[in-house]
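Deviations from the work plan: none for this task. Representative record:
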Amino acid sequence: MLVTNSPFCLPSPVAEMGDAKAQRSERPKAVQVEIHSEPFSPWQRLESCCDRFAASAVFIGRVRPESAQGTHLDALELTHYPGMCERRIDEDAERLRQLHGAGAVLVLHRVGRLSPGEVIVLVVVQADRRGPAQRCCNELLEVLKHDAPFWKREWCGDQGAWLSGNTPL
Amino acid sequence: MEARLQAVMPHDDSGSVRVLLFAALRDQAGWEEKRMPLAGDGPQTALQLWMALELGALPAAVRVAVNQQLVDPDQQLHAGDELAFLPPFTGG
């Protein structure tokens, strides 16, 4: 389920198919940000999002099987500040897109309770060359970790612990 | 040029501020949202309002947002503002 039904998001492909006229007039947005409360397939999104430019840099982040303390992890809970979170990602993505001369940015991020191995985040940056795509993707990922209001809580059994920092680069 | 989203605009709401807590702060306080009055000689800055919540000293790592924009804790508050206290971010 898409948490944010916002101007960040394009109309769905299904909706576009039902309105050929709208499809022709609709130009993909340069920055697209989506927060999902249910699992999404990064591979399905990659099939449909990456044919506009010669170079695409992709990052897929998944839940680790162990906690920050090295013990078995049952689940990872992700919460966010609705509204502020999407806005900050959108603004930072657009700033970095222009800074690096990239063409298009896609960010999908999960919230809710995730199991080990589940996808947390998908970042795709498209550009005319590999340099802008890779640099923008790397920097945007760090922005997501440090500047977007998300919070993680690790669950081991019935014990939950909020994380106070990010893993090293 | 694409239109960017506008920041949340404050609105007067009977002289009160909407206070939001997140993550560990929410668990420690036992609540996630409450309204606090700004009337008379009551708290006028984000930091003063935090102290009125009686949750101890504001942790140095906690960031403050007013109307979904990061601000200094000394930011003046106005009726209808949305004030949020944000533990360190751990996304991505």
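Strands of chain B lie at 16-21, 33-37, 63-66, 69-71, 82-86.
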